[in-house]
Amino acid sequence: PAEEKAQLLQNSEYQERMVESTFLYLTLDLPTAPLYKDEKEQLIIPQVPLFSILAKFNGSTEKEYKTYKENFLKRFQLTRLPPYLIFCIKRFTKNNFFVEKNPTIVNFPITNVDLREYLSEEVQAAHSHTTYDLIANIVHDGKPSEGSYRIHVLHHGTGKWYELQDLQVTDILPQMITLSEAYIQIWKRREEDETNQQGA
Fold it and tell me: Which partner for 139 in 66, 116, 165, 180 could form a disulfide, CB atoms 3.0-4.6 Å apart?
């Protein structure tokens, strides 16, 4: 209740604290994959939009964290947008016995991802460029313990996408990239004078 909440917020242990910290990459949490089956008893792979998992950084979405001593809520908001952003999609969870992989497909556009809404109003004023284009996408295929990796890379000069796995290099349509189990993504901030050569 609001009254009880207001009372608790008077105690130091419940008061909000703001901490600013640098980051190497942004971790995006996937929702728990539901184990739905279709009429042929085959598992249905769930999907989630990129903007749903980016909502973690909108400054208002709360996430609960638990330790052996306490549990607390955190909210995240971006205070600066660097020239390059790395997203790490949290596919793997460990428990005491084994590692599990979440197969949820993340639906994302390859170009024009605008992160303006994840900045506070004051910070927005200082950022004239807030749009990003994908330049690399690392995919994990298979089981957590014995899977393999592929990478999709944009060739900047031609605007063509290539898929690399071991020593094999093949070209790939941009539409195929979004169907993969993306694990790590690298995004480049678009400057005003840049034109989009990706054709996606």
Answer: 180
Highest mean pLDDT among 58-62, 107-111, 127-131, 177-181: 107-111
Residue 199 pLDDT exceeds 50 = no
Contact 106, 29 (CB under 8 A): no
Domains observed in the chain: 22-31+43-189 (3.90.70.10)
Tokens of 188: 């480049």
Rounded Cα–Cα distance for residues 87 and 107 (Å)? 14
Contact 150, 142 (CB under 8 A): no
Q: Which amino acid is at 41?
A: E
Using pLDDT thresholds of 50, 70 and 90, give the confidence band for residue 172.
very high
Task: Provide the whole-model pTM.
Answer: 0.82
Q: Is 194 helix (H, G, I), strand (E, B) or coil?
A: coil
Extended strands (E) in the chain? 26-29, 47-49, 63-66, 71-74, 84-90, 92-94, 99-101, 105-107, 113-114, 131-141, 148-155, 160-165, 168-172, 182-189
Q: What is the pLDDT of residue 35?
A: 64
